[in-house]
Write a structure and sequence with these properties.
- By secondary structure, the chain is of the alpha/beta class.
- The protein starts with 12 loop residues before the first helix and ends with a helix.
- The protein binds pyridoxal-5'-phosphate.
- The site of pyridoxal-5'-phosphate (PLP) has 14 residues, from α2 and α3.
Amino acid sequence: MISYNDPDRMPDPALDERLARWFRDRYGMQRIYLTTSCSAALEMAADILDVGPGDEVILPSYTYVTTALAFVKRGATPVFAEIEADTCVMDLADVARKITPRTRVIVPVHYAGISVDMDALLSLTRGTSIRIVEDAAQALDARYKGRALGTIGDIGTFSFHHTKNLSTGEGGMLVLNDPALARRADVAFEKGTDRQAFISGEVDHYSWVDRGGSYGMASPLKSLLLEELKNLDEIQEKRRRWFQLYMETLQGAPLGLPRIPKYAEPNWHIFAVRLASQAQRDVVIRRMRERGIQTVFHYQPLHRSAYGRRKGYDRTPLPVTDTVAATLLRLPLYPSLEEEQIRQIAGALRKSLEETP
Ligand SMILES: *Cc1c(COP(=O)(O)O)cnc(C)c1O
């Protein structure tokens, strides 16, 4: 038969199967959707859960814009929870205080690949209809009590952006953990149509059935992803070594080192320390730059952003978030660094700290 579409241009289903198998074998992920980004995966999650006006979504303020925007775009109200200073992930006592009858979704962000205490979070939502969407953008290959992050909530979302541990330039993934949501997820992924039911022969044509988007990753990036995954163990091993070398060489320095809770096996995504004040951090960044080393701060809390202030989100006090945002400093952490460079950076940081008032 002469096919209607050019067969040379059709995506290869075997590629999807190989990727699905890889993620299933390594992490136990049962159903994945490769997306254009983690932001797209978060928007798809909001579609799947039909979040809308009147719904509240609890998330940290100390996160990337799209953790909130994916839900805000659909008219939901973000409710910002506090973080813990030493892990930089959501403070569950504050989450518990912020749950109301309107709470539809809670979004734990596994900052730096360090897990939120998922059992404690799930115990807050047990017996309710509140859904959990793990923003695991930074958490590929990280675990909680042995379970892969992104597989514990109803939905998990990942990023393959060039700043993350594993990259396709831009890219992402949605992991669906509640099989009851599969059909809705297929529709959201297929641009609001039942094309997936058509492909599997359940319907004889496909059409518009619900909300959705153009979320799918392009085939060339899938091929790239499959290649990149072969490097994952090597990448992770290097990152682990550099992270631990920072911990050793900065032991006893006048700064706050990251705390890794017992239940968390991180993926060494970010090495961040906390300094005494914003003024001290500004001086340290300058002194480090003079020594030829770039160090950076991280998020402006969303409740303090221009949009957040316009919407009045800054009326909720989040003092720990404000302090972390003002004092957190990230050091270079990537596989191609060398042991000598890590020692040099740690030494320069100690010297720079001595030079601050
Ligand atoms: C990187 C990141 C995102 C966005 O990922 P993209 O793939 O760039 O869309 C979302 N949330 C968090 C916590 C991130 O770190």
